[in-house]
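Consider this today:
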Amino acid sequence: MTTLAPAPETPISVVEIRPDRGLFDLDLGAVWRYRELLYVLMKRDVQVLYKQALLGAAWAILQPVFAVLIFSFVFGVAAHIPSDGVPYPIFAFAGVLPWTYFAEAVRRSGMGLVTDAELVRKVYFPRLIMPLANVISPLLDFCIASCVLLAMMAFYHITPSWKFLVAPPLMVISALLALSVGLWLGPINVRFRDIKHTLPFLIQIWMYATPIVYPLSIVPAQWRTLYALNPMVGVIEGFRWAIFNKGELDIASLSMSLIIIALLLFGGLIFFRRMERSFADLI
């Protein structure tokens, strides 16, 4: 006589859904519990970006390179914009590289909720994972394009110093700023779909309000405090300081950037959390 052993019990995953406990109930622990989904979304973004692409990862290099070629001719050769004693092509590339990452991270995080509308409507997960994935995944393009920066440093005989170690923390600051902006733009884009048309224009205006094609030194001294309200000013200037090993780190601009980013991030988390409950209905 054969005796059948009882089948092992399948563990049941229990998800507790509860009302908010106040304005500052951000439930950030849920993001950690769904960290595997964060990894899956990041992997998907990279695969979709390069799937059936003619040049593949080369696009991560071509975009900033062609931008620098144009800027070098228009601003370096034609307009004779100074570059603080640094060859203009690498001066521009050192600004374009972090800006390209920031602009792409803002674009993806601002549009991500609407782009993945079906996922938002049908599956429960902390929605904060989506802007997080959209901000982290473009870092791969940044790392690939950084190889061009290293090649240019070798070509222009620029030797890295210990200051080069400051560049990664500055990119973390840039990522936090992109996340902060995405936390505001994402919910607004869910409600008002014309954000997708205005966002490229706003990013372009923001770029020219940032010392990318020109140095901070040409901004009049009496306007620099107001100018530093742009959080990317401290990031770009700090990035160039880390690469070129020239001058002093602009602590005032960087401190202003950190304060503004902290306020935007905290307010963005609250705003995103408050709007999250209506995403499925509005999308």
Q: What stands out?
A: DSSP finds 13 helices and no strands in the chain. Residues 88-115 form the longest helix (28 residues). The radius of gyration is 22 Å. The chain has a mean pLDDT of 86.
